TrEMBL record:
<dbReference type="InterPro" id="IPR047863">
    <property type="entry name" value="Ribosomal_uS8_CS"/>
</dbReference>
<dbReference type="InterPro" id="IPR000630">
    <property type="entry name" value="Ribosomal_uS8"/>
</dbReference>
<dbReference type="GO" id="GO:0003735">
    <property type="term" value="F:structural constituent of ribosome"/>
</dbReference>
<comment type="function">
    <text>One of the primary rRNA binding proteins, it binds directly to 16S rRNA central domain where it helps coordinate assembly of the platform of the 30S subunit.</text>
</comment>
<dbReference type="InterPro" id="IPR035987">
    <property type="entry name" value="Ribosomal_uS8_sf"/>
</dbReference>
<comment type="similarity">
    <text>Belongs to the universal ribosomal protein uS8 family.</text>
</comment>
<keyword id="KW-0687">Ribonucleoprotein</keyword>
<dbReference type="GO" id="GO:0019843">
    <property type="term" value="F:rRNA binding"/>
</dbReference>
<keyword id="KW-0694">RNA-binding</keyword>
<keyword id="KW-0689">Ribosomal protein</keyword>
<comment type="subunit">
    <text>Part of the 30S ribosomal subunit. Contacts proteins S5 and S12.</text>
</comment>
<dbReference type="GO" id="GO:1990904">
    <property type="term" value="C:ribonucleoprotein complex"/>
</dbReference>
<keyword id="KW-0699">rRNA-binding</keyword>
<dbReference type="GO" id="GO:0005737">
    <property type="term" value="C:cytoplasm"/>
</dbReference>
<dbReference type="GO" id="GO:0005840">
    <property type="term" value="C:ribosome"/>
</dbReference>
<dbReference type="GO" id="GO:0006412">
    <property type="term" value="P:translation"/>
</dbReference>
<dbReference type="Pfam" id="PF00410">
    <property type="entry name" value="Ribosomal_S8"/>
</dbReference>
Length: 132
């Protein structure tokens, strides 16, 4: 059993990028599926596929690399809110990652979204991770 499944998700993606893998397979959950959708919408991953095998299922994430330099689209991906210390942000003190170049993924009352979408919808929530 894993105590922090989101940190496990981010670590699997981080390790796959360091090893220059094209695809990484991650055990699925609804929150992980929503984080994957946000990463795809913002252009940090090339593609994803949800597979229903076994009781839990899995997510296959195709990582995105620059065609010539082979540099990953994700330079850094880090967990912010941990099980031991949750980090919340209201609408007025929403974090800016790399002065707006990166994204913060938030879990809000209106679903999982990026910090820019949360500002537009005027909601705050738990800051899950920073990606740039």
């Amino acid at each position: 059993m894993n105590t922090d499944p989101i940190a496990d998700y981010l670590t699997r993606v981080r390790n796959a990028i360091k090893a220059n893998h094209r695809v990484v397979e991650i055990p699925a959950s609804n929150l992980k599926k929503e984080i994957t959708k946000v990463l795809f919408d913002k252009g940090y991953i090339a593609n994803y596929k949800f597979e229903e095998n076994g009781p839990q299922g899995s997510i296959k994430v195709a990582l995105k690399y620059h065609p010539i330099t082979k540099v990953s689209a994700i330079r850094s991906i880090s967990r912010v809110s941990k099980p031991g210390l949750r980090k919340y942000a209201g609408m007025e003190n929403m974090p800016r990652v790399l002065n707006g170049l990166g994204i913060a993924i938030l879990s809000t009352s209106k679903g999982v979204m990026s910090d820019k979408e949360a500002r537009q919808q005027n909601v705050g929530g738990e800051v899950l991770c920073y990606v740039y």
